[in-house]
Specification:
- The chain is an alpha+beta fold.
- It has one domain (3-184): Aminopeptidase, CATH 3.40.630.30.
- It is built from 6 helices and 8 strands; from the N terminus they run ββαααβββαβαββα.
- It has an 8-stranded mixed beta sheet, with helices on both faces.
- The longest helix is centred in the middle third of the chain and has 17 residues, at 108-124.
- The chain starts with a strand and ends in an 8-residue tail after the last helix.
- 32% of the residues are buried.
- The model has no long low-confidence stretch (mean pLDDT 93).
- Pfam families: Acetyltransf_3.
- One of its GO terms (cellular component) is cytoplasm.
- Residues 27-168 form the N-acetyltransferase domain.
- GO terms for molecular function: protein N-terminal-serine acetyltransferase activity; protein-N-terminal-alanine acetyltransferase activity.
């Protein structure tokens, strides 16, 4: 199990089977909050569904298609962060993330994405490009790539079906040279 430090109180820890109960609990207590922007909540009905998701992420890691991490804050699981898959031919990926409502407003996700980019995407994996997509109305999710200096590339219209309607997605990207330039210029891990 790999751990990536973020702050004295927070870290990224690779998801493992023992996390299923706590991750399900976090999903379940935040179900109404997360439902506005995440399309998969109806298929996560019990701990075994979360355990299957974690098993898929472990398999994804074994196949060199990325890694999913839990975001831990003061010893509690606060959310998750991971890649959808890796296109090794073009050295690119896209990432997704979510945070429980009770953990919002602490800068955790901005710090988590920065640490993930440092250690894995532009570090260990040596990828050229990473993208983040968020529904245009999801101001909190869009704030993460904006704080970190990602470029807004455009909007994909009716890109995702959320239960009973389609939403547009804003598409952001960061290139390896841009990220390294921002980091060497002294950008703090929080993006500020």
């Amino acid at each position: 199990m790999r751990v990536i430090p973020m702050t004295m109180e927070a870290c990224l820890k690779q998801l493992e089977p023992a996390d299923a109960e706590e991750l399900f609990w976090l999903t379940d207590v935040n179900r109404a909050y997360l439902r506005q922007w995440l399309p998969w909540l109806d298929i996560v009905r019990e701990v075994k569904d979360t355990a299957q998701f974690i098993a898929l992420t472990i398999d994804q890691h074994k196949r060199r298609q990325g890694t999913h991490y839990g975001i831990w804050y003061k010893g509690r699981l606060a959310g998750t962060l991971g890649v959808h898959s890796i296109d090794w031919n073009n050295r690119k990926t896209s990432i997704g993330y979510w945070l429980g409502e009770q953990f919002q407003g602490k800068g955790l996700m901005t710090q988590a994405v920065a640490a993930y980019l440092d250690h894995l995407v532009f570090g260990e994996w040596n990828l050229e490009r990473v993208a983040i997509q968020a529904a245009t109305g999801n101001v909190k999710s869009r704030a993460i790539p904006e704080r970190l200096g990602f470029q807004l590339e455009g909007v994909l219209r009716s890109n995702e079906f959320l239960y009973d309607h389609f939403v547009d997605h804003a598409v952001y990207s960061m290139l390896a040279a841009e990220w390294r330039g921002r980091r060497s210029a002294g950008m703090s891990r929080s993006g500020i």
